């Protein structure tokens, strides 16, 4: 449970950093991280994955959003955030947890997805490829 709380803290930090970066520039990519407290992949890899993704976002081109699928209450709260980014329809069929989905911030089209269980290098490459796809 401590690890799940740590993952959530990292996601909150990512959201705060992304929000700050968004105030400075418009993101090209929106990275949505589907997570849940009951997800073993999230528990095992979430903190490491978010650290790797944030390290690849020094340019601020990606805004990260946590989509917490733990229960109805967290789903509802996450939906409000997704609506702010215009992603509620695009993300509706994407229910897998432990996955980072990358969307074109302008068109809201899905660019790619990657499991948070992938290596730091694979996560960094997925983010790099997503950003390159919208140039």
Provide a quick synopsis of the model.
The chain is of the alpha+beta class and 135 residues long. It is built from five helices and four strands.
Uncertain stretches: 18-24
Query: What do we call the CATH topology?
Result: Glutaredoxin
Which radius of gyration do the C-alpha atoms yield? 13 Å
Strand order of the largest sheet: 2-1-3-4
Shape: globular
CATH architecture: 3-Layer(aba) Sandwich
| CATH homologous superfamily descriptor | Glutaredoxin
Helical proportion, percent range: 40-55%
* DSSP summary: helix tally: 5
Elements, N to C (H/E): HEHEHHEEH
Gap from first CA to last CA = 40 Å
Present the secondary structure layout.
Elements: H1 2-24, E1 29-35, H2 40-55, E2 62-68, H3 72-84, H4 88-91, E3 99-104, E4 110-115, H5 120-133
Provide an overview of this structure.
It is a single chain. This protein is of the alpha+beta class and 135 residues long. The protein has a single domain (2-130), classed as Glutaredoxin, CATH 3.40.30. It has 5 helices and 4 strands. It has helices at 2-24, 40-55, 72-84, 88-91, 120-133, and strands spanning 29-35, 62-68, 99-104, 110-115. Strands 2-1-3-4 form a 4-stranded mixed beta sheet. Strand 1, helix 2 and strand 2 form a beta-alpha-beta unit. It starts with a helix and ends with a helix.
């Amino acid at each position: 449970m401590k690890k799940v709380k740590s993952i959530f803290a990292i996601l909150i930090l990512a959201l705060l950093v992304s929000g700050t970066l968004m105030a400075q520039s418009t993101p090209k990519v929106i990275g949505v991280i589907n997570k849940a407290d009951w997800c073993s992949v999230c528990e095992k890899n979430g903190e490491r994955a978010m650290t790797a993704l944030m390290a690849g976002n020094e340019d601020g081109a990606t805004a990260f959003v946590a989509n917490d699928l733990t229960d109805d209450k967290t789903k509802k709260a996450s939906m409000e955030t997704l609506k702010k980014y215009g992603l509620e329809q695009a993300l509706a069929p994407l229910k897998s947890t432990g996955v980072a989905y990358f969307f074109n911030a302008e068109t809201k089209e899905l660019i790619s997805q990657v499991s948070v269980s992938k290596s730091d290098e694979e996560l960094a490459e997925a983010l790099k490829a997503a950003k390159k796809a919208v140039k």
